From TrEMBL:
It comes from Caenorhabditis briggsae. This is Glycosyltransferase family 92 protein. It comes from the Eukaryota. GO terms for molecular function: glycosyltransferase activity. InterPro entries: Glyco_transf_92. The keyword Glycosyltransferase applies. It is found in: Membrane. Belongs to the glycosyltransferase 92 family. Pfam families: Glyco_transf_92.
Amino acid sequence: MFKSELRLLNAYLYSDFIAVTTTIQYKTGQPAYCRYFDCNQVEIPNSTWQSSFFPLNTVYCVRRAGVKFVSISLQIDENFEKPPIPLIYRAFEEPIHEIGMCVGPFYGPEKRWLTLIEFVEHMRIYEVSMFYFTIFDLDGYSRLALDEYENQGIAETTVIQTEYEQLDWMFHLMQLHDCFHRSRSHSKWVINADIDERFVMLHPDLTLSGLLSSQPENVGELNFQAQRIQKSQKSPEKFVNLLEAIANLEALKFRKTAKTKIWESSKSIYRPEKVAVQTYHHSHLQYPEIIVKNVPRDVAYFRHYRVTSVSNSIGNGWIYGDNFTDTGLESELEKLLVHRVANMVEHVYG
């Protein structure tokens, strides 16, 4: 990744700066040069501005009048070859969405159509109104569901092209940094999770939006414990009938739950404008006077359906001894989830 080809992903226009995300991951401080273009993609004379990579694959640029497209070069006198990309408007006075979700990247051969629908419908129950997806590789059958969510206006997708034939979890960094900027100013609070991780509220008199709105302005992030559930089989390859699809929902089919290690693999919900650097499970750096809070396990947590039927680059170290229990969703939540998934599956694949 650190020697990959420089490709531009997205350029986000905020009220006071521009952030350009790329596929190359350099050390912080590596020089980079912002290049500015008008609406005809003609470079604006004498406008080049020196910046640097921070962190890894992101370059911050100053705003300039009349700019509609931008690009990045590694040398100030470099013959320009990288096509410029359009600015994505993110200079909103107030966020469009109260709760958005940065979803871990799609890669690998597994068919994800049913997991994708179950994940989205589960999180929509908790008032998530925008999903930011990233695709390295996704089969066409699963893409039907994702396209439908985009058509409904509740999803945005970034497709990343790289020269690598085999991808693993380390490529999450590209997705994390791009989604961090895509969601900034667009969603007030952002959940950072993969499609095999589902948020669950346990407090009977509290909603997720209520929990978030009750936080003081100096809170930039909430951390939640994750509980791992064994997923011993892959999801079905294609839709056969509605009964089979419902029977294969992860929330219904998998209940074997590992003993929780306190704050191992915790997940976060954060406010992008209050956080400077985001990592896999939580923020790495916050702005001055911003604090991070841990939410008690009896208020809310994440259920992580961890695949154990195949080996992967992380390994199968999900098992903590032999202390297991059977856990599931609360019955009313389960019924609502089944109803929503059934409607969407029937709509897309029925």
